[in-house]
Design brief:
- By secondary structure, the chain is an alpha/beta fold.
- About 50% of the residues lie in helices and about 10% in strands.
- It folds into three domains: about 90 residues, Helicase, Ruva Protein, domain 3 (Orthogonal Bundle); about 160 residues, Rossmann fold; about 70 residues.
- The chain has a five-stranded parallel beta sheet, with helices on both faces.
- A hairpin with a 2-residue loop joins strand 4 and strand 5.
- The chain is elongated.
């Protein structure tokens, strides 16, 4: 909606993976090399982990798009699978019809397929995105497939991508972990990389004017997003929409305060009082303190009155002995007020 306003020909900050928009930071470049080596190495087995939105899927798309040469890629992105569903999905990705949906029968069918591909000199690469959702049994099956041997070594190369818990899930199966050649974890971008990332996406989108996001704004974006590309996209997109809605050609860093809750769902902690609550609480505390002071003053006066009455009674008893009983008045004094000393005059 703001493309024409900012002179862009493409949306710069979509949150869906677009491999031609990928900013190749140092760590993304390294992950790309590791994935490529797993494809062309006879013992290729790589596990790439990273936070949600760190660029794993985009990186995989770039890797697949740049593939050249004779190989067969079996790319799986749906991983909420039952035990035998993984074998059935692999067969379908290989372009084969499932002859028997029994797990053992499908395993033999996959084994025959891998053997045929090995004889033809065609490497088979299995890539699984969102692999943290795989069950332990699924991972055990992948270990078994990766362990199948052909004349040139393992019959299948494997790339697993997923959220941080994927690495631990693999390590929990020692036989599988030993087959993994490389583990690599994608961290969030640094502050410098965040600035370069934003500028790069704007450049690819056709922006050629002045710098839209200044240093202070980028610093705040990096702080809120922790350098996660998808969150950077959400924040930048929101700020550009704010600028467009107010018909101004510049980005106002104050917009972050008004949109962060809408975009990131951030709320103040439940035990953090709101400003109005604080003011009300302060007023209440001051009122309570004033009330306590008034109560103490009244109580002190009552004590003094009681002592005065007692002294009068004593004098009357001395002047008119036996004519009247000393007056006995009961004065209620709050527990938190200390009575004055009897010797006080």
């Amino acid at each position: 909606m703001y493309l024409e306003f900012f002179g862009l020909h493409r949306h710069p900050f979509r949150i869906t993976p677009e491999d031609d928009f990928i900013y190749m930071s140092q760590q993304h470049s390294r992950a790309y090399v590791y994935m490529s080596s797993a494809i062309w190495s006879s013992e290729g087995f790589v596990v790439i982990s990273g936070e949600i939105g760190s660029g794993k899927t985009t990186l995989l798309k770039k890797t697949v798009r740049n593939l050249e040469g004779n190989l067969k890629l079996l790319n799986i992105s749906y991983t909420n699978l039952e035990s035998k569903d993984l074998f059935g999905l692999i067969l379908r990705k290989a372009g084969m019809k499932v002859e028997d949906d029994g797990k053992v029968a499908m395993l033999f069918q996959i084994s025959d397929y891998l053997e045929q591909m090995a004889k033809a000199g065609t490497p088979v690469v299995l890539t699984i995105d969102e692999a943290q959702n795989l069950t332990r049994e699924n991972l055990e099956d992948i270990r078994m497939l990766a362990g199948m041997e052909s004349m040139g070594g393992p019959a299948m190369r494997v790339i697993l991508l997923g959220q941080p818990e994927l690495k631990q899930a693999v390590l929990d199966i020692p036989q599988l972990a030993q087959r993994v050649k490389l583990f690599f974890h994608l961290e969030g971008l640094t502050l410098k990389e965040t600035a370069e990332y934003i500028d790069y996406r704007l450049l690819v989108s056709g922006h050629g004017g002045n710098k839209l996001f200044d240093g202070d704004t980028v610093r705040e974006i990096h702080k809120l997003s922790k350098g996660i590309p998808r969150l950077i996209n959400k924040l930048c997109d929101g700020m550009m929409m704010c600028a467009y809605s107010e018909d101004r050609p510049f980005i106002d860093p104050h917009d972050l305060k008004s949109i962060r809750k809408d975009l990131l769902g951030e709320e103040l902690p439940e035990n953090t009082p709101q400003p109005a609550t604080l003011k009300k609480r302060e007023h209440s505390d001051a009122e309570s303190a004033g009330h306590s002071a008034d109560l103490a003053a009244v109580s002190s006066a009552l004590v003094r009155m009681a002592e005065a009455l007692e002294r009068i009674d004593n004098r009357l008893a001395t002047i008119f002995p036996g004519e009247q009983e000393p007056r006995k008045e009961s004065v209620s004094v709050p527990d938190n007020v200390k009575p004055l000393s009897p010797n006080r005059k």
